[in-house]
Amino acid sequence: MSQSTYVIGHQQPDTDTICSAVAYARLKEKQGADAVPARAGELNPETQFVLERWDVDAPSHLEDASGEQLILVDHNEHSQTVTGAREAEIMEIIDHHRIGDVETSSPILFRNEPVGSTATILSELFDDAGETPSTRTAGLLLSGLLSDTVVLRSPTTTDRDRVVAEELAEIAGVDYEEYGKELLTHKSKIGEKTPREMILSDFKEFEFGTHELGIGQIETVEPAVVLHQKDAVLEAMDDVATEREYSAFVLLVTDLLEEDTTALVAGDEIETVEAGLDTAFSEQEAFLPGVMSRKKQVVPPLEDAFR
Amino acid sequence: MSQSTYVIGHQQPDTDTICSAVAYARLKEKQGADAVPARAGELNPETQFVLERWDVDAPSHLEDASGEQLILVDHNEHSQTVTGAREAEIMEIIDHHRIGDVETSSPILFRNEPVGSTATILSELFDDAGETPSTRTAGLLLSGLLSDTVVLRSPTTTDRDRVVAEELAEIAGVDYEEYGKELLTHKSKIGEKTPREMILSDFKEFEFGTHELGIGQIETVEPAVVLHQKDAVLEAMDDVATEREYSAFVLLVTDLLEEDTTALVAGDEIETVEAGLDTAFSEQEAFLPGVMSRKKQVVPPLEDAFR
Ligand SMILES: [Mn+2]
Ligand SMILES: [Mn+2]
């Protein structure tokens, strides 16, 4: 019997990562492959809402990928892969981020496109294969797309995302503006979390040269809920930065309505963060007008500053 | 005035690298980009024949890419990039090799597909864009495809390569079997070269963990021309391995008619090469039945053995 291939997204999974894993596993199955969706961590409340809304089972949690065959979606760097991925065989990668450090010994399919979501690329792959996603799969893909692009408002949004969103909304039978607003209310359910849960719920780790950084993001319609407990949040950030030996921990509190970000910072390398983001922190806080995208507006200048 | 983007292939350029650079620059230009083809080294006799046959100017030699904008074709690892590529901005990558060590700070298009040539992917990109290549461009793409797949005989050949070859041959107005045979005679014009020129004419460098390896390939219909001067060839390999501090220099002398390879080896790590290739060298020579592809049959097991 041949081995199953796990389709899996990044740690601290978000809606795009989970929905892309499920949708791509379905496409691969239609094409005769033995592909199973999996996840590398706990589901966030937005993703739980999405899976219930479209009546889809949560992918099972892959604790250790050593010795497995993997298709990576929505990430392509080892600091974000499932545990054991370095001892796994990477069969394919579908992503929309910067090019990271995953290497392979054989030629594989690696399709990275500068669009708003991995779900956008997957919708196009369904198209290329002459397949139409089911209502459920279209609902999942639309959710990944709208979540990553903040309902087509993030600066990462491209014309391709807009076209795909309309097509998916039609198949799924929803109005994407209306459905998107419903999604956003779930994204911003942060009030019930502890500060530590809050800062780690959408969190990514990066290696820039010799420096390790943590960059979290809270996308919310109520940034005050986070900023009113700033001291406790900074303490949690300090703890994490010390435990994991980060040079800096940057938290982006992104206001989805105003389309701005307030950044908080902890760690030893605050001046390098200031240089990278071209800003000055006052009491570990800085306002970044127009900043909404970690990937496009924060990671590249920080990488340049730290290298 | 905005900066031109150079479309450029690997060092020791082969026909697929040069033809892909020219063809992709044309497609980007059609789409309104300011893209210029370039090369990272001297043309081999086969590629010279191809450019004359289709009446196309040779791309100019880019000596130093520092500060430039680059689109990489037919390679994606720094040991094979043009000088200065680490100080350049990588805008896109189109390739068909293993995933290497090129990283970027922003999301870019990276399209790597496990097919026989980069030219195959480019032909599909013309298609996706609704563009038909001109007779000349089709001639170049066909040449890249037939050269890399040894006229569709190499084990790297896929059904997609076969379909694309027929389409390109029709546009270019040639019979691809006949044209392919003509190409091969130029590929095998090795008799006039010095041993050093011979071993470096289709040559790639790899970093496997702490080891650097050189792996050259001579694809010929007359392997005896190389093997009859084995002592001089081994001496040249020894010199290069010492100068560049390689752990091993492996030369693949591939018989295009018999579809077999005779490997020669120099350097300190011959036993690791033997383990990787699952063979025993006698007087620094081993016969590898059925081996035709460096990329698919030689690089992956050597990487595993050296890591
Ligand atoms: Mn995503
Ligand atoms: Mn090639």
Automatic annotation (TrEMBL), chains A, B:
PANTHER family: BNIP - RELATED, MANGANESE-DEPENDENT INORGANIC PYROPHOSPHATASE-RELATED. Keywords: Hydrolase, Manganese, Metal-binding. Its EC number is 3.6.1.1. SUPFAM superfamilies: DHH phosphoesterases. Coiled coil: none annotated. The lineage of its organism: Archaea, Methanobacteriati, Methanobacteriota, Stenosarchaea group, Halobacteria. Its cofactor is Mn(2+). It catalyses: diphosphate + H2O = 2 phosphate + H(+). GO terms for molecular function: inorganic diphosphate phosphatase activity; metal ion binding. Pfam families: DHH, DHHA2. Residues 180-306 form the DHHA2 domain. GO terms for cellular component: cytoplasm. It comes from the Archaea. This is inorganic diphosphatase.
